[in-house]
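Progress against Task 2.4 (sequence-to-structure conversion) is shown through the following example record, which the project officer requested during the mid-term review.
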Amino acid sequence: MQLPLGYFSFHSKAFINYQLNRCYSLGYARKQDLENAGKQLRTLGDAYTVFRRFSDEARGEGRLKNAASYLRLAEFFLDPADSNKGAVYEEYVQLFDEAFLDEDYVRLGVPYGESNLHCLHFPPRKQEVKGYLLAIGGFDSLIEEFFCFWKYFAEAGYHVLAFEGPGQGGTLRKHGLVFDHDYEKPVAAVLDHFNIDRASLIGISMGGYWAIRAAAFEKRIRRVIAFPPVYDWMELTNNFNRSLVGRMMKMPGFMNFSIRLKMMSGLLKHAVNQARYISGGKEPIDAVRWMLGMNKEHLHSWEVDQDVFLATGENDAFQPPLLLQKQEAALSLARSVTTRVFRKDEHADQHCQIGNVQLALDTINNWLERFPEDTEPRIPKAGSYNEEA
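Structure tokens generated for the chain above:
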């Protein structure tokens, strides 16, 4: 499997441009389609109509994998308050399964309380089975859109169990479970259901936070990959702003008013609405509470004693290198900590290495090879290892 190389100027607005590049870098979109879509997109409000049209055109031409990728973009940009949101998601999943009918994966439900977690199992595609790799996406992602990740690691010899925790994908849309930052609970549910006594865990984007949190409490996880780490959003600002946010959170009426004023911006409106949707929040302040819930105290980095891999891009606009540095320093008891900051000259400096996902996957796989699953406890190693390009 060889994924596309390069980060392109599909749109003048950075957020929209990133989403179009993400679609392209994950391997199932045509560059010319995204170039044309970028010319037609003026605001986030246009996105659903534009990508629905591109999806329908691709489907009519028998390009089902393209059609599924574009329908995912349409669903992503559709306001959660839109009554069609659930139907479009169901249509996407059906189209995805039709498009990838020749691929080896199984849809599963993992019992979770009185409900289920949405899960895909990719069996290993090599005779030498290397173990289990649990995988989670971030924020409002769907596990289907990271298909190239799961296929890659299955081809490397892993049983890949990609699942959506509470608040994500089908777990939210079909089972109504809203977000819970205590990610050791869904991780434990997957391990229990499949009777797994040791596994690796990868968290993509905000999933990097939940992967570290899960590893702190769930010791059947032996290796953890935060791609990239979050650590604590408030570490990106100064003491004055942290204090200001703390005071404003005690004035919910004023906070809601302030956020609504700023939600005139399409990007902030999209982010706040998505956060409320996945967390079950009603007011704008609920989205802020959810974001602030991802903090260094709740993370329990000091209880992580596994091998850890931290990666980010030097120009990551969402989870920049400072958060990696903070997370690395906080992993005081980790058996080992490996860090990797991907660069612009590698076409991998953006969030989640969009532009060169292939390099990121190869780097993570090489790290897994260097740190095979242990059979006996090992002596903790001091310091960290920074892998060279």
